[in-house]
Amino acid sequence: ADARRCGERVGVWTTGMAAVKPWELELHAQLRSAIERDELELHYQPMRDATTGRTVGVEALMRWRHPTRGLLPPGSFLPMAERSSLIVELTWWELDEALRQCARWRAEGIPVAVSANLSPRLLVVDELPQVVAERLAAYALPPDILTLEITENALVSQPARAAAMLSELRVSGVKLSMDDFGTGYNSMEILKALTFDEIKIDRSFVADAQGSLPDVAIVRSVVDLGHRLGVRVVGEGIEDEPSERILTELGCDLLQGFAFSPPLPAQDLTPLLTDTTRRDTHHRAVSAASV
Ligand code: C2E
Ligand code: MG
Ligand code: MG
Ligand code: MG
C-alpha cells in the first residue's frame, strides 16, 4: 500500500505497480531531483578515424554523481528511468548538455561531432524532432553535427511509429547510428527497412576478433555490408593495440575504446581533443617509428 501511494505520487509508471520495488521508487525519486541538483554528468569518449588517427567525434555517455553512492554508470539508473516518463526529461537534459558542450569545443577550435544515445522510449515521443531542432538552433549547430545512436532492439515494440520518427529525424539532417549491431534478433530486417548513416559493431565481436575466426568473419561481413549500404562502420570497445590493428585491417572506418581513451568529463578530454582533432596522429606515429 505504501509503494502504491508512493507510485501514485510519482504518477508516471508505465508498468504494473507490482513490478516496482520500494528501492526503485526511492532511487527514482532521487533521480528526479538529480537534474535540479545538477548531479548528472555526460562523459565523452573519442571516436577516431581508423586511417588518419584523427578524432572526428565523441560519444556522450551519462553518469550520475550520486550524493552517497558515488559515480553511477547508466546501466544502474537508466533502465529504471526508462520505465517511467522520467527518461523523457533525462533525454532533454542529455541533448541540451551534449550540444552545449559540442558548441563550446567548436568555439575553442576543436571540430568534433557529437553522438548521443537515444532510449527506445523516445521513438514514440512526438516532440523529439522539435526538441532536437530547437537545441541545435540554440547553439547554432548544423544538424549533421549530431548523431543519434539507437540500439536495434529499440525498434521492436512499435516498429511503424519508431520508423516514422527515425525518418523524420533523418530528413531534418541528423545522423542515425545503429548501436550494438549484431546483438538483436532482426538486424537485417531493420537495416532493410530503415536508413542509417552508421553501424556500431557490438563490442562482444570486437573483443573476441583477435583470437576467434567466427568473430573475424562476422566483423569482416558487417564492414562489407555497411560499405555496400554506404554506411560508415564503427568498431567499439577497442581495448588494446592488437584490436586496433585488426579492426583497422578489417576496414572499420572509426574506432572507439579504452585503447584511445575511456569516457571522460569534458574538461579532462579537451587536451586530448586539442591534440587529436587537428593532427594526423598515425602519420606522426609512423614517422616517429621510422626514424
Ligand atoms: P553504448 O552506447 O554501447 O556505449 C558503450 C559502452 O561501452 C559505454 O558504457 C562505454 O563506457 C563502454 N566502453 C567504451 N569503450 C570500452 C572498452 O574499450 N571496453 C569496454 N569493456 N567498454 C567500453 P556505459 O557508459 O556504461 O554505457 C552503457 C550503455 O548505456 C550505453 O551503451 C548506452 O546504451 C547507454 N547509455 C549511456 N549513456 C546514455 C544516455 O545518455 N542516454 C541513453 N538513453 N542511454 C545511454
Ligand atoms: Mg552508444
Ligand atoms: Mg554500443
Ligand atoms: Mg550498449
Automatic annotation (TrEMBL):
Molecular function via GO: cyclic-guanylate-specific phosphodiesterase activity
UniProt keywords, alphabetically: Membrane, Transmembrane, Transmembrane helix
Presence of keyword Metal-binding: no
Top-level taxon in the UniProt lineage: Bacteria
Key word Membrane present: yes
All copies of domain EAL, residue ranges: 24-277
Full-protein positions shown: 368 to 658 of 1062
Organism (species): Parafrankia irregularis
Protein's recorded name: Diguanylate cyclase (GGDEF) domain-containing protein
